[in-house]
Structure formats: C-alpha cells, structure tokens
Design goal:
Length: about 325
C-alpha cells in the first residue's frame, strides 16, 4: 500500500536521499525545507533538482518553526506518516548560535507533534542523534542506557525531542519512533561534516584539522544504510511494550506506542583510519593539523543495533572502504575536480 509521507528537511542530505527511495517504491512525498544558509544553499538546490521532476513529489518552502504555516500544511494534507529530519544540526555551531537550536529543534518539533495530533497521523518518525549519549562511556551505546548527561545544546535538544515525543505518545496515543543516527556520510553529504571538509582541503592542498590528536572513534554509517533503516522503521509502526514497568523503566520503550532505535554501523573506526582510506581514494596525502578535543565533542561513538535488527530485520553493514570511495567519486563528479 502506497503512503502519503511528509519529509521535513527534504533538501537535506538524508531527506533528499530518503525522498528518492520513497518515490521509487511508489509513495507520495511532500517535502518541506526552509533552505537556510547554514551551509551552501546551491547544494540543497541541486539535491532538490533530483526530486523536482519526479512524479508524486511536492516541495513546499517552509520552516518547521513557522506555526501557522505548519498548521496549514497539516490541514491541507492527510499524511499517513511523518519523517522529521529538519533540525538545526551540528555540535560545534550550537556553541555559537544556541537560539537556532531552540527555534528549530524545540519550537519546530512542537509544531510537528501538534500537526500529528490534530490530523491523527498514523506514525511519526523523527531523527534523534548519537550525541544524546553525551558523557556516557559504556560501549556499545544502547537505547536502554540512561542518557541524562548531554555535553552540547544540540544533544540536549535531541534528548528533548525524545521526551516530547513520549509525552504525545502517552497523552494522545500517537505512535512515535526516534532514530539515533550515528555519523552519517556518503554522496550528497553535508559540507560541515569531516569527510566533506577533509576531501575539499586535501584536494586544495590545505591542512586538515584533526581533533583529539586523531584519537577519535566514530561509528560511521553510510547513507544508503541509514535510508534503508528509516524506511523499514516508517513501515513498522511503534506499539506499546506490554512488559514495560514503571518499577524498572526501560528508556527505549513504553506503555505508550513509543520506540527508540540506534542506526549505526556497529563497528567504530579510528579517525586516523578514516583519513587513511580517504587518502587512498584521493591518491593524495593529507597535511594534518593535530588539535585537542573540541568542547561539546565526545571521544568515541559505537552503536548497539540489536533492537533495530530484531524489530525490522536490518543491520547497517557498508564498510568505510566502499562508502568513502562512493563519496569521492560523487565529489569529483559534482565539483568537477
């Protein structure tokens, strides 16, 4: 059965790739994006251009923080599902411009919850982040672990989304599923992410900034794996956990129709190895500017994906050797270098 799905952040890295996959399988997609200049708007426009000619796709330029605009959008359409990918992203930027995180990630998310509530959307799926694990050090990170010590406002806003979603699931019986993404990379990626920054600098003969002296570990997750996981989750409507108990509350489930999942590659990679693979794909060595850890950053991420595998039968597995190669081929083609 084809669905009518709202994808917020449709001009974004994940949003545009997801929209293509949904259209390919016959869904109708309404995509919204505010087209802000947090990074190069021409890249967002190029992503949208891939969608513009597709049957079943409608684009609306709209900010999720625009309350009246969002009310009109939900009133005009009868969405089966909503995938919220619109957010002010980035850990480091949250140290500079905290208000944009409150506007997008808190006010904007409230507008989405209210839209789902008043139009009885069957499933709200939303992007959370691995950054919610904050100061946790027990690895791999599990959705059943407590996450009460965020180390950036971005992380705190994503944790807030999970709490807000639970409230609406509890009060209004709206099925909600939060997805904690782990360092997404690949073709059409974000220019503020390490792979993009590194590739550009190496090709231009400039040094790259390597934080924590290269001792970072990340669970790098390829875009196609993220999108496959997202689609399976959209189709797997969140249900109450009949065994949930307030005596020993499980943070990933509830008596309400509420779920949380990690989507990560389940195999952390050292940053230096990531750079090494990139150098091989580019055929060029990087000049490295070794720096200390940045405020708000964490030294390592590693996703436990057992719940995702059990419930939707999927586990991300694309190795960085394949993913980085695909990114470099896209980058050279897109920027003609």
């Amino acid at each position: 059965m084809s669905k009518k799905i709202l994808v917020t952040g449709a001009a974004g890295f994940i949003g545009s790739t997801l929209s293509i996959r949904l259209l390919d399988r016959g869904d109708t997609v309404v995509g919204i994006d505010n087209m802000n200049d947090y990074y190069d708007v021409t890249l967002k426009e190029a992503r949208l251009a891939r969608l513009a000619t597709r049957q079943g796709f409608t684009f609306v330029k709209l900010d999720i923080a625009d309350r009246s605009g969002m009310e009109r959008l939900f009133a005009e359409h009868n969405f089966d599902a909503v995938m919220n990918l619109a957010a002010q992203a980035g850990v480091r930027y949250s140290l500079i411009n905290p208000y944009s995180y409150i506007e997008s990630n808190i006010m904007g998310f409230t507008n989405i919850l209210e839209g789902c509530r008043h139009t009885k959307v069957k499933h709200l799926v939303y992007a959370s982040s691995s950054s919610v694990y904050g100061a946790n050090t027990k690895m791999p990170f599990s959705v059943h672990h407590n996450v009460d010590h965020p180390v950036s406002l971005y992380a705190a806003s994503k944790k807030a989304n999970e709490l807000m979603a639970h409230t609406y699931s509890h009060l209004f019986n709206i099925p909600t599923t939060g997805l904690r993404f782990f360092t997404v990379y690949g073709p059409w990626g974000r220019p503020d992410m390490a792979l993009f920054l590194f590739t550009k600098a190496i090709l231009e003969g400039r040094p790259i900034d390597v934080f924590n002296n290269g001792k970072m570990q990340r669970d790098f997750t390829y875009i196609d794996d993220i999108v496959e996981g997202v689609i399976r989750v959209i189709d797997n409507i969140a249900a109450p956990n009949p065994e949930w108990s307030g005596d020993a509350p499980d943070s990933a489930t509830s008596r309400a129709p509420y779920r949380l999942y990690n989507i990560g590659n389940n195999s952390p990679v050292e940053l230096m190895r990531y750079i090494e693979v990139l150098e091989e794909c580019l055929g060029k060595k990087a000049q490295k500017n070794m720096l200390p850890m940045q405020p708000g950053d964490v030294p390592a991420t590693y996703a436990d994906v057992d719940d995702l595998t059990r419930d939707v039968g999927f586990k991300p597995a694309t190795p960085i050797e394949t993913g980085i190669k695909n990114f470099v081929e896209w980058y050279r083609g897109y920027y003609k270098v």
